[in-house]
Request: fold
Amino acid sequence: MTTYNIAIDGPAGAGKSTIARKAAARLGFIYVDTGAMYRAMALYFLRKGIDRNNEKAIEEACEDISISIHYKEGAQRVLLNGEDVSGLIRTEEVSQMTSAISVHAPVREKLLELQRELANTRDVIMDGRDIGTCVLPNAQTKIYLTASSHVRALRRFKELEEKGLRCNLEEIEHDIIERDYRDTHRAIAPLKQAEDAVYIDSSQMTIDQVVEAILEAAGHGNPKDGR
Ligand code: DC
Reply:
């Protein structure tokens, strides 16, 4: 069976998940949020008090971790050893830990197979950092979605404010820049634009405009044969 795969990569806060979710609903594809899988692993290491730089301890712990996803009312849920941890993985502490532990090969290897298997069995929009370059090099459509760090920080700031949380714009932008640096400079599968990816800078675009640009890049989801 030939499945249709759309890969979306880009830095933190570029709007990948909101946009991918909407585009997936329009196309009838499933949305796979690979960041959530890395986040679930980071939560495990945090709970166990494992040092983010201790590759040996991380490698050993990887053997005790099982990550899977399932869909509830159309939304992806991520399971860590059978426990639905979707509601626990969006904190700043988990974000920073995730970026730090995703540099380690055993962590990435653990998730690669699962991600490829999903894309081989279903039409997917998958987002992350290395989807077009490493996980799905044969994806029919690849998007590199970005925005300036200031715009990304502002979006995050507004999101937190709406939730009634106190936050500091400068600190948010600082954290975003730090995470960008780590994600683009790591040795294995760093964030970078695939050669055949369509580049979209969403700084001055609405969510709907970006969704339309992606659907257009995908030829409105008409499968091409022969990947
Ligand atoms: O997309 P996100 O913000 O949920 O991702 C959290 C971190 O996970 C990100 O800073 C780097 C890592 N990640 C990765 O290394 N590879 C992916 N495909 C997805 C996320």
